[in-house]
TrEMBL record:
Assigned keywords, A-Z: ATP-binding, Cytoplasm, Fatty acid biosynthesis, Fatty acid metabolism, Lipid biosynthesis, Lipid metabolism, Nucleotide-binding, Transferase
GO biological process per UniProt: fatty acid biosynthetic process; malonyl-CoA biosynthetic process
Record domain CoA carboxyltransferase N-terminal: where: 24-280
Name recorded for this polypeptide: Acetyl-coenzyme A carboxylase carboxyl transferase subunit beta
Amino acid sequence: MAWFKRTDKGIKTSTEEKKDAPDGLWYKTPKGNIIHTRELKSNAYVCPDDDYHVKIGSKEYFEILFDENKFEELDGNLTSGDPLQFVDSKPYTTRIEETIKKTELNDAVRTAVGKLNGEDVVISCMDFNFIGGSMGSVVGEKIARAIDYSLKNKIPFLMISKSGGARMMEAGFSLMQMAKTSAKLALLDNAGIPYISLLTDPTTGGVTASYAMLGDLNIAEPGALIGFAGPRVIRETIGKDLPKGFQSSEFVLEHGFLDFIVDRRQMKNRLGTLLKLLRN
């Protein structure tokens, strides 16, 4: 078995002694570029070789945006009920419990207050890993309460959207959150308190049709999927082929539905500048 030990090549490590590289050390972008996860994190989760913006959640956005990652979370213990006693492949209550255990999140949005480049701000950030970032009663309630906090304390509100749309397990209760959050934002507008909406990949469905597109400023990350219905549904509805990339943030910007697109690596400084301007 000399061929196995490869002593002629100076390789003497036995199979039992070999160690596999730990999972999760490297990230490969859709274009095939590979980057170490430590470098990726230091680069705001953007691959420098192709500027691909990796999908991240509230934990990472809070780390990027809040000064020294210091913030006070609001209504962190709210969890979904089961008003319709919904069952599909499993009971809704079971799905919620399993998702909470898997993601260590209580629902698809987290809200917090802190400072961004020295400016007070309330941030609500959605998490796609929690049932596709779907908007249910808890999502609507937490956003509404975050807006109330902004109103009471006269602090600007930043909404970071990332969602597949309304949560089907709550049916009409979920759809009501569109009107609920939109009405709260109208109060924010009446009070003259700034609202910035940041759309990330993906932002679709009832979220796009409500609070995601109602900002005083609507901004997005590069390459984000932004739309209401999916491309296949639209194509089958209108019976026409759609332009290439028609639901990308770049296409949406070109057609007037966004104010501008911001690279995540410049996001904190750009938002800090906006908050200073809006405060003055």
